[in-house]
Amino acid sequence: MYRTVTRVLAKIACLSVLTWSVAAQAQPDAELWEIWQQSDESNEALVNHSRWQHFLDSYVETDALGVNLVKYADVTDVDHEALRIYLETMQAIDPRNFRKQEQYAYWINLYNAATIDIVLQNPGKSSILRMGESFFSAGPWNDEVLRVAGIDLTLNDIEHRILRPIWRDQRVHFAVNCASMSCPNLAKDAYTSRSIERLLDKNEHDFINDPRGVRLTPRGRLEISKIFDWYRIDFAATDAALVDYLASHAVEPLATQLKSYRGKIRYEYDWSINAP
């Protein structure tokens, strides 16, 4: 009996690990959710992201390698509650009543703040892959964690049914944060309609010129973030075109090295939590 139970538990554990692995590799396509296309370009009102900015100012630090880390363990109950109030305030807004650029910033901030809240609700877990509501889920991305304009939303809805298909901007992959070490930095500044273009350009430049994004090994092999594989369609049609894209945003000597690179590409990703 003991051996039978042990074997069953082992199989469950293996299946769970496999599920996490498969889900981590397979990413949804961009499929437009048409109801979110509406906007009011005559509305000059701005969404207030000051509570989110307070959180970023208080708990995001840059390490010696330039990685922005979140001090989850230091977050006070008061500041966690302030974050929850921010999320509630954002969910009470119908973003379709705002200009398109204001919506762009709104959705990115909402996604990132909701991700932080999920991590804070799962203290001690080493990876966001272990934070889904279902025992067999690989992460929280398909969990309905938000409700906007009376519509339940998942993080995947925001990224793949709103942000990607509406704005068709590859830079969004450097803005939404998955709370992992290999993810592009969580920006220290809240996005606004006035700052978003500058921040997106900076994020793209910084990640491509960071070893987490692109690097050549001592043996000359090109290793890049799995993001460029998962979302290849958003960046380039072929390996050669992808390398050209990376080279166009790289600084020297990486830019020259990429322009002459003709080898294979290896993709890497570290899902450990982005904490100090």
Describe the protein's architecture and organization.
- By secondary structure, the chain is mainly alpha-helical.
- It folds into two domains: 28-202, no CATH class; 214-268, no CATH class.
- It is built from ten helices and seven strands.
- The protein has helices spanning 2-25, 50-59, 77-91, 100-120, 155-167, 196-208, 227-230, 232-235, 239-249, 254-259; strands spanning 60-62, 68-70, 144-148, 151-154, 214-216, 222-225, 265-268.
- The strands form three sheets. A three-stranded mixed β-sheet has the order 5-6-7. Strands 1-2 form a two-stranded antiparallel ribbon.
- Strand 3 (144-148) and strand 4 (151-154) form a beta hairpin.
- Helix 3 packs antiparallel against helix 4 and helix 4 (100-120) packs antiparallel against helix 5 (155-167).
- The longest helix is centred in the first third of the chain and has 24 residues, at 2-25.
- Residues 1-24 have low confidence and may be disordered.
Number of domains: 2
Estimate the global geometry from the Cα principal axes: globular
Amino-to-carboxy terminus distance? 44 Å
Can you list the strand order of the major beta sheet? 5-6-7
Number of helices: 10
The string of secondary-structure elements, in order, is HHEEHHEEHHEEHHHHE
